[in-house]
Design brief:
Length: about 110
């Protein structure tokens, strides 16, 4: 599935299914073909995404320290990090929240 997030306060944001599912779960929503994020929920959603990004980065740093202590190196990260995938959604939420507009998908 492909998510197309829309808001009257920002341009459309397209995410592939697994990335969209992950972001929705982080903000406390079950992945669905249609949905809405209301402005009142956006500050908590942005904070949840930022916590998840920090957790992912901390886990990577911990793994790198452990590998270094064992005398080995971790392979480079594969793919796109959560920070990179979630940044456009956070920016969309900031704009939508400021303008008092919903973010919707599947409609």
């Amino acid at each position: 599935m492909i998510y197309k997030f829309k808001s009257k306060a920002a341009g459309d944001l397209i995410m592939m299914g697994p990335s969209g599912d992950q972001v929705l779960r982080i903000i406390g929503k079950e992945p669905a073909t249609q949905g809405i994020i209301e402005p009142a929920a956006m500050p908590a959603a942005m904070a949840a995404i930022e916590r998840a990004v920090a957790d992912e980065e901390a886990a990577r740093a911990r793994a790198e320290r452990e590998a270094e202590a064992e005398g080995r190196t971790l392979p480079p990260r594969e793919g796109v990090s959560l920070r990179q995938r979630a940044w456009p959604m956070i920016e969309m939420m900031k704009r939508a929240h400021t303008a008092g507009k919903d973010i919707v998908w599947g409609v």
